[in-house]
Amino acid sequence: MKVLLLVYLITIYERVFGWLSGVEIIGEEKLPSTPFIYAFWHRYIFLLTYSHRGRGITVLASTSRDGRVAAGVVKKLGFNIISGTASSPTTGVRALIKLKATLNSQGIAAIAADGPRGPAFEVKKGLPFLAIKTGYPIVPLAAAVKKRKSLNSWDRFLLPVLFPFNKMTVLSGRPVYVGQNENIDDAAGKIKKELDEISSKADNLL
Q1: Using N-to-C axis directions, what is the helix angle for 2-20 and 65-76, rounded to 10°?
Q2: Where exactly are the structural domains of the chain?
Q3: Class for domain 2-203, per CATH?
Q4: How confident is the model at residue 91 (pLDDT cuts 50, 70, 90)?
Q5: pLDDT tens for residues 97-138?
């Protein structure tokens, strides 16, 4: 019952934030013509859930209580859900197989690179592994919002304040291509570099 209540309240918060705010997405003209994988730091989840709602993007959601809440919210906002954690030895393989199938059928996937529990701003191996195995590019995302709170959580979660004429800007970065023979740690480093760069740009926007 608590999970359902949290899903309801957070979904309402997302929608009210959207009604009160202007949203600008920069860089989408660079999106690949092939299937691709959105990647972002976990702190941006609330903002990106609203900006990319209704696109049928497939996301990973962990099987924890927090993951079930997040899955309920994003499903209401038009995302598809795969349960599992890309870096988990138990659910990770099944989740990655399903994500690969989504990409092969011309879908778009999205993964929090440091999720679901950190360490913050460190790329877990599931994301580069998926890119290596599929050959599809990774598109880094970051976001900024004018009126917000940075929570005292492991990921420094960004929560927008419900304020009239608030403004959110989302940056969509240049695609990152990972070679299918590339070392997984090298690939993770390449992805981290792009995520850190676009996040720094977002932090300086507002």
Answers
A1: 40
A2: 2-203
A3: alpha beta
A4: low
A5: 899 999 999 889 999 999 888 899 999 999 999 999 999 999
Phi-psi group of 56: left, alpha or beta (phi > 0 → left; psi -120 to 50 → alpha; rest → beta): left
As separate numbers, helices (DSSP H) first and strands (DSSP E) second, the chain gives: 6, 9
Task: State the pTM of this model.
Answer: 0.94
Q: What size, in residues, is the chain?
A: 206
C-alpha to C-alpha distances, 82 to 18, 77, 100, 107, 162, nearest whole angstrom:
25, 15, 11, 13, 30
Nearest CA-CA partner of 121 in 160, 151, 154:
154
For residue 142, how far is the Cα from the chain centroid?
A: 9
Torsion sign over Cα 52, 161, 6, 65:
positive
Residue 4 CA to chain centroid, in angstroms?
Answer: 22
Residue in 28, 29, 63 with CA at minimum distance from that of residue 141? 28
